[in-house]
Design brief:
Helix content is 36%, strand content 26%. It folds into two domains: 2-237, Acetylglutamate kinase-like (Carbamate kinase, 3-Layer(aba) Sandwich); 244-386, Gcn5-related N-acetyltransferase (GNAT) (Aminopeptidase), CATH 3.40.630. It is built from 13 helices and 24 strands. With 387 residues, the chain is of the alpha+beta class. The mean pLDDT is 91. The two termini are 53 Å apart. The strands form eight sheets. The protein has a seven-stranded mixed sheet with strand order 18-19-20-21-22-24-23. Strands 12-16-17-15 form a four-stranded mixed sheet, with helices on both faces.
Amino acid sequence: MEDLVLLNALGVHLVLIQSTRHAIDSYISEQGLQSAFHGHRRITDQALLKRIVELVSQIRLTFRGLFMRAQHRNHGQSSLISGNFISAKPLGIHEGVNHQFTGSIRRIDASGIRRQLQIGSIVYLDHLSHSPAGELYNLASEEVAAETAVALNADKLILMGSTPHCVDAHNERISELALALVGTTRTHQNEEMQRRLDAAERAIRGGVNRCHLLGAGIDGAILTELMTTDGNGTLIAAQPAAPVRQARVDDLPGLIHLLAPMEERGALVQRSRDKLEAEIDHFCVIEQDGRILGSAALYPLDQQCAELAALAVDHAISEQQIGSKLLKHIEEQARALAIQNLFVLTTQASDWFKERGFVMSSVEALPENRQALYNFQRNSLILKKEL
C-alpha cells in the first residue's frame, strides 16, 4: 500500500480492483461446502452472494485502514474513492446452466473515473456491482480489471496474485512475453495464472499497451517491476517491449552514455560524438522507456566480409538476453547483404562470442582494408563466424 501511495504522489493515476477469490475459496473450504462452476465462472446463489458481500466489505475496510496508515506515514494527500462506476448485467443461462447472481459488465463510467483521477484521487473498485434494475451481481475481478483498463485506455494493467510470474516448459521465469505467444505459454501455467493471462490478452487486444503479472507476496514487487529494467514478474505486450531498431541521430546522448563506461575500461574503441554521428547509419539499438539498453554496429568490409563492432549492453540489466538479441539482428542484416563472414575484434569478450558460434581467427584473415587499420597496441583478438 505504501508503494501505491508513493506512485500516486509521483503523479501516477491508479485504479485498484479488489479480488476476493481466495477469501471466498477459504470460506467455502472451511464450511465444507461445494462451489459450483461452469467453465471458470463461479455460480453465485443467494446464500453465497450474501457471504461474498460480507467478505468484500470486510476486505474493503481492512484496505482503507492500510491506506490511511500508508498515507499518514508518507505524508500523502490523495483520497481513496469508491462509487457506482460499473453497472452489471446477469450472466444468465449458458448451455442450460443458470448462473443466478453471477454477472458480467454492462457499462463502465470511464469519464467519472477519469474525473476522480484528475483531481489526484485513487479509485477503488470491487467485483460486486448492481444492474440498472438494482439487482446485485458477483463479477470476475479479472474481467473488471481488464475491461476497466480498456475503457480508460490505460498505459498499464498490473495483475497480482499468489503466483509471481509465468514459467516456460523448464519452469524458468518468463520475464517478457509477446501477445502472439500467450496461447502456447498458457499450457505451462496454473489455473490462477491462466485467468490472469486471459485478462491480460483481453486488455492488450483492447488497446492497453502493457500488462504486468506480479506476485502479491513479494515485497516491493510493483516498484521493482515498474522502475527496473529486468523487473520481477512477467511483462506482456502486443510486441516485444524492447525491439531492435535502426539508430537515429537523436539517440546520440543515450549511445554516448552507454558506450562511455566500456570505452573508459578499454573494452571498446573510443569514438567521438562527431564520429558516432557520421557512422550512425551503421548502428542499431535496443530502447525501452526512452533509455538505450544496448547497441551494435555492422561495418561491411567488402562484398563477402563485415565487422561487428560496438556491441554494448547497459551494465544494470541482464547482458545475455539483450546482447544475444543484438547479435541475432546484426547477423540477419549481414545475411541480407549477402555477407558470408562476420568478424569481431574484442579484448575482453572472446568467450561470449565463442559460445555463439565464433571461432578464433587472425589479422591475415581480415580483408586488406581492415588489416591496414588494425591497432597492434590494443592487440584485440579476432574472431570469425561463417554465416
